[in-house]
Design goal:
By secondary structure, the chain is mainly beta. The chain has two domains: 10-70 and 129-147, Chitinase A, domain 3, CATH 3.10.50.40; 75-123, Thrombin, subunit H (Beta Barrel). Helix content is 10%, strand content 40%. It is built from three helices and eight strands. The chain has helices at 46-52, 68-71, 147-152, and strands at residues 10-20, 26-37, 60-66, 79-83, 97-101, 107-115, 119-123, 132-144. The strands form two sheets. Strands 2-1-8-3 form a four-stranded antiparallel beta sheet. Strands 4-7-6-5 form a four-stranded antiparallel beta sheet, with no helix packed on it.
Amino acid sequence: MSTDTIANGKYVELVYIVIDQKSRAVLTRVDHPLGYVHGTIEILAPAVMAELEGKAQGELVEVPIDCNQIYGPRDKSLVIAARIQDVPEEYREVGTSILMENEQGQTKSFLVTDVDAKTVTIDGNNPLAGREVIFEIDIKLVRDATEEEIEYGGKVPEDKAPKSSA
């Protein structure tokens, strides 16, 4: 096993789940390793990133987060139930994201959270707003990042990788 620990300039791959502390329901699951260069970009909440410092490949890390501090409490005024006939068909599926604009021209993303025979419910709250959660993180890889990875902030896609001279 590698003795590298997470610090600025290290390439890290991890998978994680986010669990609601009250219901124990899994809210988010990322099973495909997420790769990034530590210290160049924040792929998770700053409190989670800070907890990863000094951890090594193979470690499991649990980080409790009060999402009220990040996203604020849930705002019930951002939950809207519309008559299904007033909603275009392409927005009648749970999980669909809808970008809406107010009278001042400001845009906000809403998520379709419920659809039944009469209504479509959309929610402009961040899905974690008002929740207390636990991030369970499995660190899959820690190594020195290449110059290209540092510049890119993570794993360099094939189409952006430097061409080898053969």
